[in-house]
Write a structure and sequence with these properties.
The chain is mainly α. Helix content is about 55%, strand content about 5%. It has a three-stranded antiparallel beta sheet with strand order 1-3-2. The protein starts with a helix and ends in a 9-residue tail after the last helix. About 25% of the residues are buried.
């Protein structure tokens, strides 16, 4: 799971809660299989800021996924983060964002089953992505030929 997907997955556990950076630094690495870089905390912080219009470091074109929490120094997932991520993924044809969303939809049981049989993971992600694409087409938020 990539960094952004791991951040979303962690924050989605308590979507109404504020997350301080220290909690994210503790939880996000648990979902990463690769060895952690020396300054993984700066990777998490940079991605958070790059995907939030509440931060000065927001990168235009990125989906606006995170908002500042109620307490100073805290963050949360935006309530419509899924639609923002999926729409951006289909518009930009960015499969990495689609995978981030699909990973976030997987239950822990899904992931454990797929990790036991890695060949099943792409199929699980594709089925979740296709279902969301059909939902957005039905709502008129994507053209029929979208992605």
């Amino acid at each position: 799971m990539n960094w952004l997907g791991a951040m979303i997955h962690v924050m989605q556990r308590s979507p109404e809660s504020d997350w301080d950076l220290r909690s994210l630094y503790n939880e996000v690495p648990k979902l990463r299989a690769e060895p952690l870089p020396d300054h993984y905390d700066s990777v998490i912080r940079a991605l958070l800021y790059a995907h939030s219009t509440d931060a000065a470091a927001y990168k235009p074109g990125n989906p606006d996924l995170f908002s500042k929490g109620q307490r100073r120094g805290t963050w949360r997932l935006r309530s419509d983060w899924e639609d923002r991520l999926i729409e951006r993924a289909f518009v930009a044809k960015n499969d990495a964002y689609l995978q981030d969303w699909a990973f976030a939809q997987c239950t822990v049981e899904d992931l454990h089953q797929c990790l036991g049989d890695v060949a099943r993971l792409p199929g699980l992600l594709r089925s979740k992505i296709e279902a969301k694409r059909e939902e957005l087409i039905a709502k008129g938020r994507l053209p029929l030929g979208g992605h």
